[in-house]
């Protein structure tokens, strides 16, 4: 999924409260939500451009941050403990610094530290590592975990859909997949 933020020739800036933006996201009104998020992009662009990036990199990082905000807003237990702008900039900073480390590039400190909350960064790092650990799983493991945990299918249904010989075999495979995901996560954190 991509947000339509950069599909417009010009950016539209609307004044919206954080709660209004979150409501738009929760109700899949992406275009309205993104219009309210325009003021979050300039500091993200400044952060990326001042740290070995360009405008296109900033747009990509901003899109990823919007996706993370969107996914979080869809969970029933998401509580925004800062402004959306602080959240987006913090997530973007974390994503960009992770990308720079991956490429072996130097990170230049910015004046934006006051916008970033350390616990939020750590939470997003764990989220990204968990997502990466999940993505390292084989397709069948991914399907099994998605069916069981996200689509709330019973183990009997999972066994039938994935053509396991029995529910017990599906349960054993689920256990192995979870252990593999945990191992991937541990490897990524070291």
| Average pLDDT over all residues | 80
Q: What string, H for helix and E for strand, traces the elements in order? A: HHHHHHHHH
The rounded distance between the terminal residues' Cα atoms is 31 Å
Rg, rounded, reads 19 Å
Q: Spans of 5+ residues with little confidence (pLDDT < 50)? A: 1-14, 113-120
* Total E-strand runs: 0
Sum up the overall morphology in one term: globular
Fraction of residues in H or I helices: 55-70%
Global structural class:
mainly alpha
* Range of strand content: under 5%
| Count of the separate structural domains | 2
What kind of sheet is the major sheet? none
Structural write-up:
The protein is mainly alpha-helical. The protein folds into two domains: 1-127, no CATH class; 136-190, Arc Repressor Mutant, subunit A (Orthogonal Bundle), CATH 1.10.10. Helices cover 66% and strands 0% of the residues. The protein has nine helices and no strands. The chain has helices at residues 18-26, 30-36, 41-49, 55-74, 84-103, 118-135, 139-150, 155-161, 167-189. Helix 1 runs antiparallel to helix 2 (30-36). It is globular, with a radius of gyration of 19 Å.
